[in-house]
Amino acid sequence: MNKIFTSCIIILSTFNLIYGFGDTTKLTINGSADVYYRANFNADYNAAPNTSFANLPGFSLGMGNIILSQEGDKFGFTCDLVFGPRGEDATFLSPELRPGGSSNIVNQLYAYYQLSDAVTFTLGNFNTFLGYEVISPTGNFNYSTSYMFSYGPFSHTGFKMDVALESGLSFMGGIFNPTDATEFNNLNEYAGGIQIGYENGGLGVWLNGLFSDGFSQFDITAGYDISDVIYLGLNATMASDNFSGAAAYLQLSANDNLAFGLRGEYFLDQGLGLFEIDDSVFDLTLSANYNVGNLTLIPEFRLDTFSKEIVPDSETFNDSLSSFVLAAVYGF
Q1: For residue 45, how many other CB atoms are within 10 A of its CB?
Q2: pTM of the full predicted structure?
Q3: What domains are there in the chain, each with its CATH number?
Q4: I want to staple 234 with a disulfide (CB 3.0 to 4.6 A). Which of 83, 222, 247, 319 is the partner?
């Protein structure tokens, strides 16, 4: 681990020397750490929603996240490292491609060149542009994640071009390795990605697409500040012969330190293999965020209702799973 951390420092420093960022550019270090407790009300001790990250029983670890970055007028570089169960799940395909390799802790590793105020080129490994939720718990209101996020792409390795216009319109186009093949291209196949976005005041809408041979996923994400204290987010997606779903995110700020959020999601298996074809789940998640400085405490109640009885409970099965999570997330 120390060798990888040191290597990132050396790479960033060398990049600075080669491209001459100058004294105005500084190396920044930030990240997060999260831990949690999880329990079920109506199922076996180790039963969990079939979603990513917050599914371990009892007192559990999330991840430690260290992000090294350097930004200049034209060039920049990011080395994003993750450790712990959440980090391992986020980079799940790296050790499968090359057992014993070091990339199982690399969440993002990319360089960018800003051609103009509007156009930016990026090369490397970066988190996905699809979906509403993200890998880092500091970027999500709910601590547990949705089904759409869990079975969509986590990261892409490749090249992309971003265009941001003063009108609020934005465009992205890129070519990537197969989804989540972060370290190298093991199949000699590629995927294309596009995004069209629009932001104006408290409104943001993004249309996303990911395409490869025999597969496509379309995704729409939107967010709107209804008032100073009420926010509504939306996400809908369809992955060919895999799954489709939709979710709404409603958040209410009680004061500067306390907010409440409700997520409702419908998810349909259309060949993914998580359930039988055309089986579905509806999950409802109520979370609170209480901020104390850089620390956020997240108590969360979640109810997953399935179209069939698949949740183990002693000697029987239920068609629902109700659970509780208390998470602590520290960002720096």
Answers
A1: 11
A2: 0.89
A3: 2-331 (2.40.160.10)
A4: 222
